Amino acid sequence: MPESRRTFIASTTALTAVFAAGCLGDGDENGDENGDENGDENGNETNDETNGEPDLEIPDRETLTLRFETEDGEPVSHGIDGRLSAVDGGRNHSFGAEIEAGVVEVAFPVGDVTVTVESTEGEFEPVEETYTLDAANTEFTIELEGATSDADREAE
């Protein structure tokens, strides 16, 4: 490639980069380098009522522990297809394979939670229960009438 062509390409690339950098700026249309009344110095939207904190609401969470048992209180870990749904529609979670010794634990937002459990093998009727998850209530037991316990499954 001839030297003049290389110089032209390098110059054009450099000018384009400088032009683009000048046009893009820092995103603050008001020219206030320290943020404006609706944003902090990083450009995050803020709410004056929260003392300049970003408007990010992270729901409180608890570890929800579900125990699955037969009518005799024996743990059930296999043949379960389950779903958690926040009653307010905010979050859903599916589970099944991660159940060990009849227990599954899921970090889930506090509030009313609907638990739906179905048999993948047709052993028990579907179960749907609604619980209130909060700091005082994190563990719930669901009886699966007709399900095969882990001990009986191992004996087969």
Euclidean distance between termini CA atoms: 77 Å
What percent of residues are in strands?
A: 25-35%
The overall number of domains is 2
Give the biggest beta sheet: 4 strands, antiparallel
Poorly predicted runs are 44-48
Q: Class of the largest domain in CATH? A: Mainly Beta
Radius of gyration: 28 Å
Question: Can you identify the CATH superfamily of the largest domain?
Answer: Carboxypeptidase-like, regulatory domain
CATH architecture type of the largest domain = Sandwich
Task: Note the main attributes of this structure.
4-stranded antiparallel sheet, 2 domains, 3-stranded mixed sheet, elongated, 156 residues, Immunoglobulin-like, alpha+beta, single chain
Overall description:
The chain contains two helices and seven strands; from the N terminus they run αβββββββα. The protein is of the alpha+beta class and 156 residues long. It has a four-stranded antiparallel sheet with strand order 3-2-5-6, with no helix packed on it. The chain is elongated. Residues 44-48 have low confidence and may be disordered.
Could you outline the blueprint of secondary structure elements for this entry?
Layout: H1 3-24, E1 61-69, E2 80-86, E3 92-95, E4 103-109, E5 111-119, E6 127-133, E7 139-143, H2 150-155
Parallel strand pairs: 1-7
Antiparallel strand pairs: 1-4, 2-3, 2-5, 5-6
Short description:
This protein is of the alpha+beta class. It is built from two helices and seven strands, in the order αβββββββα.
